[in-house]
Amino acid sequence: MTTKMAINAKDIFRNQHRLIRFIEQSIRLCSNQSLKAAQQQQQQEKSTTADFEISASVNTQYTHAPEPIKHNKDLGDLFKASQMSVRLATPQQLHTKPDNDEELGFGKLFTDHMLKIYYHKSLGGWQKPEITPLENLVMHPAAKVLHYAVELFEGMKAYRGVDGKIRIFRPDMNMARMNLAAQRSGLPTFEGKEFVKCLSRLLSIDSEWVPHTEAASLYIRPTLIGIDPTLGVASSDSALLYSILSPVGSYFKTGSGDGAVSLLADPSYTRAWPGGVGNRKMGSNYAPTINVQNEAAARGLQQVLWLYGEDHQLTEVGTMNIFMFYINDQGEQELITPPLNGLILPGITRDSILAMARQWGKFKVRESVFTMPMVSELLNQGRLLELFGTGTACVVSPINRINYMDQDLYIPTMEQEKPVHELIRDTLTDIQYGKVDHPWSMVID
């Protein structure tokens, strides 16, 4: 074989995965045309009988954009997406894609590439972003993340719409929340819009990993860790901001045919407290919950309902925010969720539900403390209609049973003729999967 032939053969092998992806995409695009037409017809049928009209706009009275982050004066240089370098995976580095998108678990498979952005105060601040093949991280054994949990993360998803386009949901909210957690952790902040541009490039490169079904999506895990190789509890002068991608299916294995979850509510355990960081998405909030989750599983329950205070206030369900739909003392239907008082995470799904429900105007919506004695009383009086958890991973998760003070409370969430939680879930997923044009959905070019 001549040198020229060898070079040509090398080019063919280097690019063959791109040809395969192009052919797969073309085949799926043809099938998507008929799928889109069928789903449009289904949507038209739904709209004739829907209780609420899904608005293609957001009333600013009910929601607002997050405030810009204020960086520390000594932060140094900020990174820009325009500075990004890309190193694509070789054919040997490509991972096998799942055969069936609808049978995916959660967080067990990962795509071919990752995004990495280093911060070094000694080098002037943030370095240039880079996309590389998915690879292990190398760090000093004294890195602060390993000793003091100087770490935070976010949870986002990319959805393949009925039109074949890929969308992400309200990324500005995730970026604002991530920067607030960075400030609380002594980690460097960054410009959220630039990071979203970097994520968009990563998603476009690994676009064929976004599942071609509404039963699954591509989970996005932005993470920021302190990598300063020094012992001692202090701010980290070096950090790594990175993101990995994972095709995912259902978050919960409920064991029930209707998808509802059962909960352990044990007041002897507390997830968060005033003045703490229960309102920030840090890894240190989650490790202490694992043992309690195992205890719930040992009792045949799926999740933990976290209570706070002597009056047993409901705060969160596992890693989700919680909502209750009930008949209030005035005989009105009301949707209630705990307030942002520092004990709970300011969920993006939570904020979206509150905005939509207030804009619908079909029932009262309130952010207020409510307790387990209140839940028990409403249940005994037949006024408790639904309880459900919400979050990026699960969207909406109905609750059918709570084990509280060694007593099982059976919640009639799944017994309602027109459940509110189903309306909320369908509305959100219609936006996320592009059935409804909406400013909350950002299309990845």
| SS content category | alpha+beta
CATH architecture of the largest domain: 2-Layer Sandwich
Q: Beta-strand percentage?
A: 15-25%
Total of DSSP H or I helical runs spanning 4+ residues: 8
Q: So what's the overall shape?
A: globular
Number of strands: 19
Q: Would you give an account of this structure?
A:
The protein is built from eight helices and 19 strands. The chain is an alpha+beta fold. The protein has two domains: about 80-250, D-amino Acid Aminotransferase, Chain A, domain 1 (2-Layer Sandwich), CATH 3.30.470.10; about 260-420, D-amino Acid Aminotransferase, subunit A, domain 2 (D-amino Acid Aminotransferase, Chain A, domain 2, Alpha-Beta Barrel). α3 (about 170-185) crosses α4 (about 190-205). The model is unreliable at about 5-10, about 25-35 and about 45-50 (pLDDT under 50). Its cofactor is pyridoxal 5'-phosphate. One of its GO terms (biological process) is L-leucine catabolic process.
Concise overview:
By secondary structure, this protein is α+β, with helices and mostly antiparallel strands. Helix content is 28%, strand content 24%. Its cofactor is pyridoxal 5'-phosphate.
Fill in the keyword field for this structure.
disordered N terminus, 8 helices, alpha+beta, globular, six-stranded mixed beta barrel, D-amino Acid Aminotransferase, Chain A, domain 1, BCAT-like_C, 445 residues, L-valine-2-oxoglutarate transaminase activity, L-isoleucine-2-oxoglutarate transaminase activity, EC 2.6.1.42, D-amino Acid Aminotransferase, Chain A, domain 2, B_amino_transII, 28% helix
